[in-house]
Design a protein that fits this description.
The mean pLDDT is 94. α6 crosses α7. This protein has 7 helices and 11 strands. The longest helix is centred in the first third of the chain and has 14 residues, at 31-44. It folds into 2 domains: 5-150 and 212-254, Vaccinia Virus protein VP39 (Rossmann fold, 3-Layer(aba) Sandwich); 157-208, S-adenosyl-L-methionine-dependent methyltransferases, CATH 2.20.130. It has 257 residues and is of the alpha/beta class. The strands form 2 sheets. Strands 3-2-1-4-5-11-10 form a 7-stranded mixed sheet, with helices on both faces. S-adenosylmethionine is lined by residues 5, 8, 14, 30, 55-62, 76-78, 81, 98-100, 114-116, 119.
Length: 257
C-alpha cells in the first residue's frame, strides 16, 4: 500500500518554508550537475533529444539549466514549490502530481528523477516511481535516476547552512542519522531558524527517506523494463566534508527501441 502524498508531505521545507528555499538551495549550485545530466542524456538517448519530463522538480533549479536544451515538463506536487519553479521557469510546462502515480498520457525523450526520489520510502514506492518514469519515456529514450546515497554507505553527519538576502535570513542545521540500521529508511532532522525582518520562525522538520542498496535500485529499474547502467555523477555542489556519504553514481535507464 502506497502512503498518500499528504502523509509523505508533512514537510515544512516544501510548504511554509518555501519563501526561504532559495537560501538553502541556490539555483546556481545546480549548474555543474545539470551539465553532466545533459551530457549523460546525450550519450544515452537514441534519436531526437527535444523533450524532458522531471518528476518532483521542486523549485525547478536543476530544470532551469536543462530547459536551455530541452522543452521541459515539470511535475511537482507541492503548490508552494511548483510556484517557485513557475517563477524560475516560465517557459516550461508545470503540472501537479505524485511521482508514484502521475500519468500525463504522453512520452518524452528524457525523464529525470533527481533528489525528490529520496522520498520513496519502501521498495514498492521506489518501484512505482520507476514505473512512472518508464511509461513516460519513448522507445530509444532514457531516464536518469539520482539516489542521494546507497544503503551501506550512509553515515551520520551534521551540516550548518547559513544564508542572507535582503530582509530574509536562514540558519539551518541538517542532521542525518539512521534510527534503525536494519530497515531501509533513514532520517534527516532539519532545524530551521528563518528570519524576516524582526520576525523569527523556528521549525523542526523531520524528513524520513528511503535507503536502498545499489543492487536494489538496479534490480527494481530492470524489473520495470529499463536497460540499466551506473554512471559517475559530479558531487561539486556537496560539501567535501560529507561527500563520502553521498552516492557517486546515478542510474542511466534506457528504454529499448
Ligand atoms: C529537494 S526538493 C527538489 C529540488 C529540485 N531538485 C530543484 O532543482 O529545485 C524535493 C522535492 O520532492 C518533492 N516530493 C516529495 N515527495 C514527492 C512525491 N511523492 N512525488 C513527487 N515529488 C515529491 C517535494 O515536494 C520537493 O519539492
Amino acid at each position: 500500500m502506497l502512503a498518500a502524498y499528504g502523509a509523505v508531505m508533512a514537510m515544512a521545507l516544501y510548504d511554509r518554508l518555501a519563501p526561504w528555499y532559495h537560501l538553502l538551495d541556490p539555483a546556481p549550485d545546480h549548474e555543474p550537475e545539470a551539465a553532466q545530466l545533459l551530457e549523460t542524456f546525450r550519450d544515452a538517448i537514441v534519436g531526437t533529444r527535444e523533450t524532458l519530463l522531471e518528476l518532483g522538480a521542486g523549485a525547478g533549479n536543476t530544470a532551469s539549466f536543462l530547459a536551455r536544451a530541452y522543452a521541459c515538463t515539470l511535475s511537482e506536487p507541492s503548490d508552494a514549490m511548483r510556484a517557485l519553479s513557475e517563477a524560475r521557469n516560465p517557459g516550461s510546462v508545470h503540472v501537479g502530481g505524485d511521482m508514484r502515480s502521475v500519468r500525463l498520457d504522453r512520452r518524452f525523450d528524457a525523464v529525470l528523477i533527481h533528489d525528490a526520489i529520496v522520498y520513496m520510502r519502501s521498495r514498492e514506492e521506489l518501484r512505482a516511481a520507476m514505473e512512472t518514469a518508464f511509461v513516460h519515456v519513448r522507445e530509444g529514450g532514457a531516464a536518469i535516476l539520482v539516489p542521494d546515497t546507497f544503503r551501506g554507505q550512509l553515515r551520520e553527519y551534521t551540516q550548518l547552512h547559513e544564508a542572507d538576502e535582503d530582509d530574509r535570513s536562514l540558519r539551518a542545521l541538517e542532521w542525518c542519522w539512521d534510527p534503525d540500521p536494519e530497515d531501509e529508511l533513514c532520517t534527516v532532522e532539519w532545524s530551521f531558524l528563518a528570519r524576516r525582518g524582526t520576525e523569527m520562525l523556528a521549525i523542526h522538520d523531520r524528513h524520513v527517506e528511503g535507503l536502498f542498496a545499489r543492487q536494489v535500485w538496479v534490480e527494481l529499474a530492470r524489473d520495470v523494463g529499463f536497460d540499466v547502467t551506473l554512471a559517475a555523477r559530479p558531487l561539486e555542489d556537496v560539501d567535501p566534508g560529507v561527500a563520502d556519504a553521498y552516492a557517486s553514481e546515478w542510474l542511466v535507464c534506457r528504454r529499448r527501441t
